Every structure is written in C-alpha cells, then in structure tokens.
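Q: What changes when magnesium ion is included in the input?
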Amino acid sequence: MADIVIDRVRKSYGALTVLKDFSIEVADGEFVVLVGPSGCGKSTMLKILAGLEEASAGTIRIGGRDVTDLAPGDRDIAMVFQNHALYPHLTVASNMGFGLKMRGTPAAEINRRVQDAARILDVEHLLGRRPRQLSGGQRQRVALGRAIVREPQAFLMDEPLSNLDAKLRVHMRAEIGALHQRLGVTTIYVTHDQIEAMTMANRIVIMRDGEIQQIADPETMFERPANLFVAGFIGSPGMNFLTAEACNGQVQLFGQPVPVTAAAAGPVTIGLRPEHLEAGRGAVTFEARPVLVESLGSEKYLYFEAPEANRPPRRLARGDEDHRGDRLIARLMNAGPVAVGHPMTLSFDPSRLHVFDPASGRAIR
Amino acid sequence: MRTRPLPRLFLYASVILTCAILLFPIYWLVVTALSQPDQLRQLPPKFWPDQPRWSVFGAILAERPILLWLGNSALAAIGAVSISMVVSVLAGYSLSRFRVRGGQSLGLFILTAKMLPATLLVIPLFGIFRTTGLIGSMWSIILAHATLIIPFTTWMLKGYFDTIPRELEQAAMVDGCSPLGALVRVILPVSAPGLAATALYGFVLSWSDYAYARTFLTNAQGNWTANLGITTMKGEYISNWADISAAAILVALPILGIYLFLERYLVGGLTAGSEK
Ligand SMILES: Nc1ncnc2c1ncn2[C@@H]1O[C@H](COP(=O)(O)OP(=O)(O)OP(=O)(O)O)[C@@H](O)[C@H]1O
Ligand SMILES: [Mg+2]
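A: The predicted holo structure follows.
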C-alpha cells in the first residue's frame, strides 16, 4: 500500500494534447475516482500511471518511489480493465496466479493466495473453468481476483463495471466498495458515470478535455461545485441554470428580487438544483405551470418553463441522459397529485443558489 | 428463422453443383489411377473401372523413390514454414501493434511483394543461389519458399492479431511480462487457431510449388520434391497416366492428413471469452 503522487503529467499525440498538467496527491488507502465525459483523457491518465503509455512530461511517484520510467511490471500495481482482459487460454486459477508466477512466487504460495482471493470474491467453485465459461459478473470478479492476489501497492480500475447490466453494476459497485474497506489498498478508479463516482469515491477528480475541473469529496462536489461544468455534471437530474443580472447582492428571478452573494455583479448564471425546489410556500415563492410530470413513485420530476427574462442563453453542459432543453426541473418528494397545465406553487431557499460568472464559468462566492 | 422452400432448394442445388465441379477432377484422378492404362481412352468413358487396380500404388512405390520425394517435400515445407512463421509472427505483430513511422507503407510494400508472380522472382533467386552455392541444396528451396510464404503469412497474422484486444497484452505487462513475454505467453497461445491456419496455408504454398523446385533442384535427383519427381514420370518414353495419377494421389494425401489434424485448431474460437 502506498500513496501516489502525480506531478504535472502531460500527454500529447502529435499536435493533440489529451492531458494538460495533471497533478494530484492520492493518500495511502484512498479511493479516488476520475470522472468526466468520453474522450476527456481518463483512460490515458490511468495507462500512464500503469506504465502502458509514456507521459510527454511530468513525474509519477508510488509509495515514494519515482516510477515514471519503470516498466508496468516493475511498478507493483494491478489493473482491472473494462473488458476484464482475462487470458482466455488459462483457467480462472491460472489467470489469478499469472502475475505471481511471473514474479517467481513458489507454486504452494500462489495456490494459497489464489484460494484466499477466490474465497473473498466468492469464485472458489469457478477456479477450474475458463473465462468463456463464466458470466459477465463472474468474469469481472475474477478480474478483481487477479488484481488482489498480487497484493499490489495500488489498484487501477478503468470502467470495470460498464459492460455489466444495471442491476449487476449496482451490486458490483457495493462489492468493490466492501473490498476496498477490507483491504484498504489505494485505488484509482475511472468511470464516466457520476453516480458511481459519488457513491464510491473518497475524493472525485472531474476532468474535461484533459484538464482537471475540480478535486473534492462527493459532498463538496455536490454542494460547492467550482464551475458550471462541474455543477452540470454532478447530480441527477442535473442542476437548473438561469440567467440574471446581479446588482447590489440581488438578482431578479421569477419576477422578484432574490438575495445572492455580494461578490456577484453584472450578468450571472444562477444554478438551482432540482431537489432544492419544493412544493408550497417558502423563502422565495413563485407560480409554475408544469408541462410534464414524471412520477417515480415517492418522488416526482416536474418540468416547467423558465420565465422569459431568466432563460439561459446557451446550452450548458449537463449529464448524459438530460434532455430537458430550456425547461427547468423540480424534484419533489411526496408532493401529492400534480396536474399538467395547472399552476402550482413552488419555492426555494435563496441560500441554495449557486452563482457563476457566465464568461469564465467559475463559481462566485 | 424460416426460409421459404424455393430459395432453399436453389441454395442446395448451387452448393451441390459447386461441390461437384470442385470434386470431379479429384474423383477423375482416382478413376484414372485405378484403371488399366489401355482403358483410359475408351468411349464412352467408364465412371468406375471394372477391376480397380489397387496394386498400382505398390507398383509405383517400388518403381520410383516417391517416399524420398515426399520426404524432401516435407523437409522443404517444414523448413520454409518454420522460418516463415518466426518472421511473420514478429512482423505481423509489429504491424498490428506498433505505430512506426512509415509502418503503413512498409505493410503495403510487403503486400505488393505477394502480388508478384513467383516466376518473376525465379531468375534473380537463381542468381543469388548460384553465387552462394546453394543451387541443388535443400536450402535453396527452403529459402525460396520462405520468400513466397512470408508476405502472405505476415498479412494473415497481422489480420489475426488485429482481432485480439490490446488489453490482453497490457494485462500481461502489468502482471510482469516484458513485451516479448506478453507475445509468447499470452498472444501466441490465444492465436493458436490463426497460427494453425497460417501455417497450413504456408505448407500448402510450399508443397504445391513446381517452378522453384524445377529451377533450383533439377540436377540434384536426391533432393527432388514430390511435384518435381512426378513430372519426370511423364513422357520419358510413353506417359503412363494411371501411374502418374496414383503418384499425384500420394502427394495429395499428406496435405489432407495435416488438414484433418489441424482442423480443431482452425475452427476453435479460442478468443471467445476474452472480451465481454
Ligand atoms: N493512440 C492515440 N493516438 C491519438 N489519440 C489518442 C490515442 N489514444 C487516445 N487518444 C485520444 O485521447 C483522448 C483521450 O482518450 P481517453 O481514452 O483517455 O478518453 P477517456 O476519457 O478514457 O474516454 P472514454 O470515457 O470514452 O473511455 C481522446 O480524444 C482520444 O481520441
Ligand atoms: Mg476510457
């Protein structure tokens, strides 16, 4: 087990720069999740950590040792791949023991450690099979087993769950979490799924176009996003955005003055999370006419039009499954019956508002 | 899925017709070998001889050093295929995995080499082998066949390696293999079906060669390959087509045997299960 220090790592393919000055210090035993949209450089960073790609600049230290120029096998890390990458010609047991065998571990010791890992992951009955005789979830478990028998300094995982169906994914998510609790091995985990990031991470690194947007624990990421991109990326459904003019610590929202931070002045983008809107009267109250209601049982998603004056000027970056267009969403718990087209009273607490500079995207506090 | 009867009938008819066209010469070869020499030209032709002359095989084996020729053919093919496989595994793997400057044009260059007819290369090769003193030796034919085989096998193997996910060797490298170790311990075992098919193809190329053997080995009777030997049976005084056909069958049998032996590797989808 070890800490990992990534210091100003850069990566270019010819003229294309896919990683820009990536730096982070990961503490011993920490579970850090790299998250961001497709193509933002997550896998590239992980491969550089593993030694499978060479960094164009920067250094990497694992457990105090500079590994920047070491071969993957000499870095004492284990990697779990999206397509699990089990060796198809070897049995499950040989797959798990392969890394130890390469390091010249005695057969008895390999056997003991494979048995131990198999017991932890509940794959003991599969040890004699080949990968093609396993289900998707079993394969991914064996891939995890291959990583843990090595007892490496760190685990690197590149979207290990994205080939599994939704239910199994939730299950394996919990299992990886439990495994991390049990073994306490420093883990760097890549995903494009913000829910995976929020549920598993000690700290999240949000990336976009090869650049770190914010590094924070899940709570902070949700409560205090550093910029518009992070605000739109984290949360489901994503944050509502409104435009307004700030003056003397006030903005006009839904036709009424609302207090915001005094640091804001001039045009601003206001962010308000769907879960911070409530049915009924509150600190700031307004009337809305739902154009669509999605009921998920205990909670309802209410879609309504933003007032003309507050319409966001451009499409703002949001999560994948967001198709609300210019409409706003309220996520209401136990709201009672809601009729489409009938005006209803909504409210929010102005201290929940996020204020962003529309030009730079940065949060204003 | 259900197919309507008419297209289905058409499908079977064309399969049968194709097989008939492909298999008829082989069938006729057998008929010719087993007929009395004087029955061959009779009209109407007989589709199976009255008294199949099974003794023809024993007779030609006693008469000609066919086993020696077959041995030479095997030696040439095994030698050429061994060299070719070593070269084309490394070359095909490099072409598949590494982005080398000019790698693409290099690959195309190899491809053009395989478009040249073998006869075009006979004369320069003859010159080279004469200066190196290899004319008449088995090495001439082994090396010449390797030049014939390598372009094909390199491209076949490149195509096969392209289908194997890179994550496999990346996993092997994280597990402590060197790049060459990952190739030997993971990629090659996983490629067994591709390697078998490629080797068989190279073997057939070498086995069926006549032009090179004719050019490089003519004056060294002890090194004749089967194909070269058989053609000398023709027309010394009169051509005995029954004997020649019987010899041709003996030459074809080893290929058939190898094919049957390798079949399980050829069809085995060993990579199934390496991806999702
Ligand atoms: N070998 C390469 N040559 C050129 N460009 C590359 C190469 N490998 C990756 N890239 C580019 O680098 C960028 C980052 O790729 P990377 O695989 O790290 O993305 P990612 O964040 O893992 O995305 P995903 O979520 O889709 O896996 C992409 O724009 C990709 O096109
Ligand atoms: Mg990726």
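Observations recorded in class: Confidence is low (pLDDT under 50) at residues 269-276 of chain B.
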